[in-house]
């Protein structure tokens, strides 16, 4: 995928999808709708405030520059990952201000975050069939465990992504990659393009951006759901692009 650090990731995403179709590389048209781009623009505006003290950074690796072996054993700047906490605050503000959800007490867990503890922000949507969004903020306990946000959905809730999933210097691909991953997971919950099935034997999740299936550890209780959009009169994105 072609990236452009001067543009929001959603503009680059749409341009890449369109380019692939025009050049015959793909028949898929999974461009983000105008409504989704407007939502992301609002998040970016809120993030300009919540993230004012958490600057982004470029990937230290490009071209022929590859991580050193010992870079996978350290995290030289754990404080920089506070940027994902600022992104969570921006999303919370936008979703509440739009009237799509309200903050509620913690939900039950079906599949908890890998890290214990953390502070849960639970956003409960007002639309029928829509599922709650849970953003769990973990503060640093040491240099190997920096600021981190788990994104979960449902009640009982299923932990879907931990951002960053690894904070070592060797895995650093820049802040833009982290924020794009954060946004796509939250978008999947809000947009209603989310299907989850968790049993004692298997974890399966599908969105219009992500697809995962693997074994389960530390399950509290099985659960399954197909999410509906948070906004009224909204058509969810298709799963077809990742299946």
Derived structural class: alpha+beta
How many helices does DSSP assign? 4
Largest sheet features: 6 strands, mixed
Q: Work out the strand percent.
A: 15-25%
User: First CA to last CA: what distance?
Assistant: 18 Å
> How many E-type strands?
10
Write the H/E string, N to C: HHHEEEEEEHEEEE
Helical percent range?
25-40%
Q: What coarse outline follows from CA principal-axis ratios?
A: globular
**Low-confidence runs:** none
Radius of gyration: 18 Å
Verbal overview:
- It is a single chain.
- The protein is an alpha+beta fold.
- It has one domain (32-60, 68-242).
- It is built from 4 helices and 10 strands, in the order αααββββββαββββ.
- The strands form 2 sheets. Strands 1-3-4-5-6-2 form a 6-stranded mixed sheet, covered by helices on one side. Strands 9-8-7-10 form a 4-stranded antiparallel sheet.
- α2 packs across α3.
- 34% of the residues are buried.
């Amino acid at each position: 995928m072609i990236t452009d650090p001067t543009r929001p990731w959603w503009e680059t995403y749409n341009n890449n999808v369109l380019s692939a179709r025009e050049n015959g590389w793909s028949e898929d048209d999974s461009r983000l709708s105008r409504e989704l781009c407007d939502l992301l623009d609002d998040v970016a505006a809120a993030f300009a405030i919540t993230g004012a003290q958490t600057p982004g950074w470029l990937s230290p690796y490009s071209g022929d520059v590859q991580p050193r072996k010992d870079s996978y054993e350290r995290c030289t700047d754990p404080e920089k990952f506070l940027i994902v906490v600022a992104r969570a605050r921006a999303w919370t503000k936008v979703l509440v201000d739009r009237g799509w959800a309200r903050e509620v007490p913690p939900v039950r867990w079906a599949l908890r975050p890998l890290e214990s503890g953390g502070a849960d922000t639970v956003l409960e949507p007002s639309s029928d069939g829509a599922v709650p969004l849970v953003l769990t903020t973990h503060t640093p306990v040491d240099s190997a465990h920096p600021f981190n946000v788990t994104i979960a959905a449902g009640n009982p809730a299923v932990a879907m992504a931990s951002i960053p999933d690894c904070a070592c210097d060797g895995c650093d691909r820049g802040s833009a990659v982290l924020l794009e991953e954060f946004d796509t997971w939250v978008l999947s919950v809000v947009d209603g393009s989310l299907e989850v099935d968790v049993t004692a034997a298997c974890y399966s999740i599908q969105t219009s951006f992500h697809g995962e299936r693997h074994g389960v550890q530390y399950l509290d209780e099985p659960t399954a759901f197909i999410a509906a959009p948070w906004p009224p009169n909204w058509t969810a994105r298709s799963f077809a692009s990742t299946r």
